[in-house]
Amino acid sequence: MDENKNKGSTAPKTSPAVVHPAVEPLSYLLGTWRGQGEGGFPTIHSFSYAEELHFSHSPNKPVIGYTQKTWKLSSGEPMHAESGYWRPKPDGTIEVVIAQSTGLVEVQKGAYNAEEKVIQLQSELVGNASKVKEIRRCFQLVDGVLSYDVQMATNSITLQPHLKAALKKL
């Protein structure tokens, strides 16, 4: 008789899903956030947009799933999207990978302050980008509003403000 045949049916029951201890300090992010933002850069016209962020957590795993999408306020036409994973560490550091709909990828490292609900990220690598050389992101939760700002540098322009938005949890 095959000893492995019935192993699946006799597996011990697992405990209920819980937020992983590494994710717990950032668990306030979990869920869907929606709001508006504005962007600009020395080489482009300023613009406004609507946005939705979604942070999810696979039970018992030390990672937060991240998706983002923006659309034009006037027409609802899609503008930008990105997705990735946030890996908070117990020592207050965080690693983030993001793939953008433009083909650009970011590997970011940073730190979070769970008490002040601030996350600061700095690009370690910006891949598949002909011009973008550096990206910094800062997220902060204050009075139920998740705000962020993004700074960007290119081959010819030093680090400049690029995006900022304010979002509320749905």
UniProtKB/TrEMBL annotation:
Gene3D superfamilies tied to this protein: 2.40.128.20
Highest taxon of the lineage: Eukaryota
Catalysed reactions, semicolon-separated: peroxynitrite = nitrate
CDD domains: lipocalin_heme-bd-THAP4-like
Entry-linked SUPFAM superfamilies: Lipocalins
Transmembrane segments: none
Stored InterPro entries: Calycin, Nitrobindin, THAP4-like_heme-bd
Every THAP4-like heme-binding domain range: 23-169
Protein name: UPF0678 fatty acid-binding protein-like protein At1g79260
Gene encoding the protein: LOC113856129
